[in-house]
Amino acid sequence: MNTHTEYDMTALSRLLQFTDSTFPVGTFSFSNGLETASFERIVHDAKTLRAFTASQARQAAFSDGVAAIHAHRAFLRGDYEAIADADRMLILFKMNDEARMMLRRMGKKFAELMAKLFDNAIVTRWLADIACEKVPGTFPVAQGIAYAAGGLDEKALFCAHQYGVINMVLSAALRCVRVSHYETQKILFDLSEDVGVLYDEASQMELKDMNAFFPELDILASLHEKGNMRMFMN
């Protein structure tokens, strides 16, 4: 009996490419607030890192993840204005400057890469609108566009989005928290079990339903803006 599962190998290869740590969008420059959390001793070992990372993943799922899903769906139906609406709403949703800077810098880099990878009118228009500041060009919206253009469905998009958030925090942790590679990989492995549940909820949400009640993160970001010891942009 043949139990081999058939995959679209091109789509799978693109998923690996877009989630690779060497994909040049600048994720290594950001810690998602972990640097300050470590400095303030809020995160100081594997247990506190796991809790911090899980909180980051959850708040991202119901804000950035929702915007990414809506951008993906809008791209597939050729609705550029809906993409722009998701982009603008997401940036307005972010309370601190460093979060907005992170999303815009990474989003612009992804848009520039997409222009090289895809011959697509929506991609070209979105990059042009970023350049003249008609849209902010957020990273989750860039992910939504790229994954749709690359033939990846929204579940793959959401998995990649969650992987990116978690891996960004854990990669930063190896530089500023007393944890090992073994511990960070165990956290990544365990938190992957939550992705399906988060997707089931996020996929049913409208843009107006986005929520991310994580005031501690905004406090940490405000402290980081004035901090003297910095390895990361945020």
**Can you identify the CATH superfamily?**
Urease accessory protein UreF
Rg calculated over all Cα atoms:
17 Å
Uncertain segments of ≥5 residues (pLDDT<50)? none
How do the SSEs run, as a string of H and E?
HHHHHHHHHHHH
Specify the structural class: mainly alpha
Helix % is 55-70%
Instruction: Please write the CATH class name.
Output: Mainly Alpha
Strand content: under 5%
The CATH architecture: Orthogonal Bundle
Shape call: globular
Count of DSSP H/I helices = 12
At CATH level 3, the topology is: Urease accessory protein UreF
Distance between the termini: 52 Å
Q: Averaging pLDDT over every residue, what do you get?
A: 88
Largest sheet: none
**What is the β-strand count?**
0
Compute the number of structural domains: 1
Describe the structure.
With 234 residues, the chain is mainly alpha-helical. The chain has a single domain, classed as Urease accessory protein UreF (Orthogonal Bundle), CATH 1.10.4190.10. Helix content is 67%, strand content 0%. It has 12 helices and no strands. The protein has helices at 9-19, 34-39, 46-61, 64-76, 80-93, 97-117, 121-131, 139-149, 154-176, 181-191, 195-202, 215-225. The model has no long low-confidence stretch (mean pLDDT 88).
